[in-house]
Amino acid sequence: MKFTPALYCAFTFLLALARAALAENTEQWGVYEVALKGPGDGNPFLDVRLSATFTDGTHSHEVEGFYDGDGMYRVRFMPEAAGEWRYETTSNRWPLTGKTGTFSVTAASPKNHGPVRVHNTYHFAYADGTPFRQIGTTSYSWCHQSDALEEQTLKTLAGAPFNKIRMCVLPRDPPMSNPQRFPFAGTPPKQWDFAHFDPLFFQHLEKRVGQLRDLGIEADLILFHPYGKQWGFDTMDAATDDRYVRYVVARFAAFRNVWWSLANEYDFVRTKTEADWDRFFQIVQAGDPYAHLRSIHNGARFYNNAQPWVTHASIQNGAAVEEPGRAELYRDVWRKPVVYDEVKYEGNIESRWGRLTGQEMVDRFWAGTVAGTYVGHSECLKGEDVNMWLGGGGVLRGESPTRLAFLRQVLDDAPADGIEPIDKWQDSNMGGQPGVYYLLYFGQNAPKWWTFRLPKSGVTAGMKFKAEILDTWAMTVTPVEGEFATKKKDNYSFVDEKGRSIALPAKPALALRIRRVEGKKTGEEVPVE
Amino acid sequence: MKFTPALYCAFTFLLALARAALAENTEQWGVYEVALKGPGDGNPFLDVRLSATFTDGTHSHEVEGFYDGDGMYRVRFMPEAAGEWRYETTSNRWPLTGKTGTFSVTAASPKNHGPVRVHNTYHFAYADGTPFRQIGTTSYSWCHQSDALEEQTLKTLAGAPFNKIRMCVLPRDPPMSNPQRFPFAGTPPKQWDFAHFDPLFFQHLEKRVGQLRDLGIEADLILFHPYGKQWGFDTMDAATDDRYVRYVVARFAAFRNVWWSLANEYDFVRTKTEADWDRFFQIVQAGDPYAHLRSIHNGARFYNNAQPWVTHASIQNGAAVEEPGRAELYRDVWRKPVVYDEVKYEGNIESRWGRLTGQEMVDRFWAGTVAGTYVGHSECLKGEDVNMWLGGGGVLRGESPTRLAFLRQVLDDAPADGIEPIDKWQDSNMGGQPGVYYLLYFGQNAPKWWTFRLPKSGVTAGMKFKAEILDTWAMTVTPVEGEFATKKKDNYSFVDEKGRSIALPAKPALALRIRRVEGKKTGEEVPVE
Fold first, then answer.
1. Residue A387: per-residue pLDDT
2. In this complex, which of B306, B330, B350 lies closest to A329 when CB atoms are compared?
3. B269, B271, B276, B277 alpha-carbon torsion, rounded to 10°
4. Is residue A439 within 8 Å of residue A419, measured between CB atoms?
5. What is the DSSP string of A418-469?
6. I need a surface site. Which of B22, B74, B177, B342 has the fewest CB within 10 A?
7. Whole-prediction pTM value?
8. Terminal-residue alpha carbon distance, chain A
């Protein structure tokens, strides 16, 4: 082969490509970022439009970019498949348009399961199929604190059972927020230049969202809230609102652990109408090529969660998870997952919504769980200063988190398709998968026994089950001796062929886990699930 | 005055007008009918379009007519105001078009309050403002029985507490229906000429609906249902479905006591899609100038009651009214009245949905009532034959109707704006109007006392209240001695200034009625409501 200048050129080009690929590799559901130097004149936040189309030949997405200050523009992309990808930019400015590149996407690393999706109508799973059993918490302003307090929060979360945290993008009024940065250029408390974002604010938030991701925690980003009267971010005009929403989506959508919560207590944001919320949803939907989960949290009034852009109901209700018969009712309305994100909090403050006992907090999780729904925690237990977990993060002082870790263990071992009500008009305290798995929760009753009886759905005569007694507060699992074999009782249910009951320790907060066992060919019996 | 031929003509004309007015008077919200002889050739059901515009100068309505057989066409109109009205017909046939007439509408007679409307978001009132407190029953096929049985049903209803009855237009399969007539020409069970209605069927139904009206009972007409496999009315094609809906609306909309129920267990009608139901709603809405109430009743799956054409939720749920904390939850979802039309029935049949005790049936009404919702009764108690109230009407054998009459008395005396949850996250068993009227229901608890305590909403210190103990089963009202004067207890509630409690007889099914009393100038005290 003759070494021609043309060949040399080609060789050098390929080498450069290979180097670029090495440098710019990311993994499936990781963040790939195109960073471009561009014009800094005028107001880039308003004047410059930038997007990029990413494709691997099979999938193709147009992704909005954003201005990150100092003349830097970025387009962030979350590839949904491993393989070779390429991109090409489009802009209304010559230096930013027509830029192309290629990069390799490797398989996801073991702890990366992708973004969370709705699964089986009422439940969640990661994109790779791994079930996601939501055990949520709320700490509205944990990212608007001193660095030391924020690091403390991350340390607490690393040892806590929560796999989702609800958090505000915009600062709240003090004392909940103690903001070190603000989303807009200008002077606090209210002299903002709404035409200029402050990239430092968002870079900080991104760092925290990335740290949550690395802890395996979903970040339910709350875009608006009614608690920032001091800063005035609830009285921006519609154009500013819309630009803010687009900017947040452009910056954060490539994080696989992001969920969009349009607002906290949306109806208490008195400056916006129902039509505004519809529009924000549509902006989020249009700007997020990955279709992250979208919800909106109510105060006294529900948004119409039947809207197609709502992926799941995010409910505040102080009474609905007091017992499973209430909790399950909203499922049928929207045929979407129901997350009771606010059910009052464990705490000792004077307000009724912040003084559940640890037992009550845990009880609500179990009631919601057997009803086929999901529940959220937070804590209003004050220490030496004014800070509480609900507002500023820091440490957890309550008694519920340890027990919620126990619940999470139980759920890790539950059917992948979720816990469904089994016979909700009769036995609302029983959830599971018919014929396979049952979880019964006795709440504040203190039963001495439970007569073995399963609703007929999925059950035939002669099936064998094993049972365990769960003490949801003491966090113990006690196997019940022997097996139960089913015998038809009536048109609705099956009982044990020997008519056996299960003796229970007559305490509150007991549960039963009943799982089917199958005879193997060897005669040995193993659980089906 | 000279008696000219022209004057004579005018005089004769005025006389004729006066005579016509006398003959054709109707009352406000009565039925005025334009009857016209027209062409009988071809198929009038398909070929002839007829409508009339009615106006009193202020209101104007275009009303669809219908063919009633034997060459007779009719347009029925329900005037919403007293005064002089006139009409003019339009048709695609010369003999029916351009007919005009005038008639007088007198004031409504004392028992005529007009059609029922939604009032105060979650409640109902007649058009004249009289509150309508729904105490419903269901007898699906009472109009598809022998005349003797139907007359028996009317006699029963005359002595029963129900002010609304759910009933099917189309026959069900036997034994529930024992149809003497069918809606279409042809031969039972399935050889129908769907292009020809049988007017006799509808004339019969109209007679019954009119008799219900005269008894003060609303007729919740169920247009479709899944229980007529033998007749095949659930497998008509879309054009026939639509024509049937239009025909029913044209015939019945002028009856002031008509409500439209699009279907019973709509989701069990496997031959129709969600889009079909949307379309039927729109046809009803377009064809009914009086906007009678519109709902659709679910089997296992809810229709989207947020749709603007749904006036109230018609719910089947066997567990939701077991306690008020459940019952109130659906109110917030749709912000419309919630009518639990099917909550299981008083009965003794084997199916679980038909074997509530009388106590359980009554308990569900009270639980729904204090939650700010409405409940429906029916009965599956068999006598000597197969007929039950639920299917064929006849007699009532159960223990609940007498107690529902007691509830109706209590409601007759309740605030006109309805019973609203007062503090639903804390005391879901208390409904009323803050500061004015409270109804507490203790369900299956058997309390020995109740410490006087009112949530703060609408209450200030020093207000005076009187209380009565209601035994909802024994149907007694026992006044509690003395008055209670309010004193602030904490940030959430007021108690009696002397810290008094009310002694209760420790039985199930107790309620308390608490009403504010005001000092009059004379010093005498009278109830506010």
1. 87
2. B330
3. 0
4. yes
5. --EESSTTT-TTEEEETTTEEEEE-TT---SEEE-EEESTT--TT-EEEEEE
6. B22
7. 0.92
8. 62
Radius of gyration of chain B (CA): 26
Q: Give per-residue pLDDT as tens, B194-218.
A: 999 999 999 999 999 999 999 999 9
Amino acid at B332: D
Among the partner-chain residues A319, A325, A491, the one whose CB lies closest to the CB of B428 is A319
Tokens in use for B264? 């019973």
Write down how long chain A is.
529
Indicate if the pLDDT at residue A523 is higher than 70.
Answer: no
- Give me the residues of A, 273-332, that contact B with CB < 8 A: 301-302, 304, 306, 317-320, 322-323, 325-326, 329-330, 332
Closest chain A CA to residue B318 = A425
Q: Quick one: average pLDDT of B313-322?
A: 97
Task: Read off the tokens for A29.
Answer: 């559901």
Q: Which of A102-111, A500-509, B7-16, B47-56 has the lowest mean pLDDT?
A: B7-16
Q: How many CB atoms lie within 10 A of CB B238?
A: 10
Residue A10 predicted with pLDDT over 80: no
Burial of B41 (0-12, 13-18, 19+ CB in 10 A): exposed
Residue with tokens 């347009």: B75
Q: Smallest CA–CA separation between A55 and chain B, in Å?
A: 37
ipTM: 0.90
For chain A, what is the largest distance between any 2 Cα atoms, rounded to a whole number of angstroms? 91
Residue A137 in tokens: 């918490």
Residue with tokens 């001695």: B481
Query: In this structure, which amino acid lies at residue A427?
Result: D
Q: Is the pLDDT of residue A375 over 90?
A: yes
Residue owning tokens 């399963």: A454
- Here the tokens at position B517 are 């009393």
Helix (H) or strand (E) run with residue B400 in it? helix B400-412
Secondary structure in 3-state letters for A281-300: HHHHHHHCCCCCCEECECCC
Given a contact cutoff of 8 angstroms between Cβ atoms, the answer to whether B443 and B477 are in contact is no
Identity of the residue numbered A303: Y
In the numeric block, the tokens 């529009």 are attached to A279
DSSP code for A316:
E
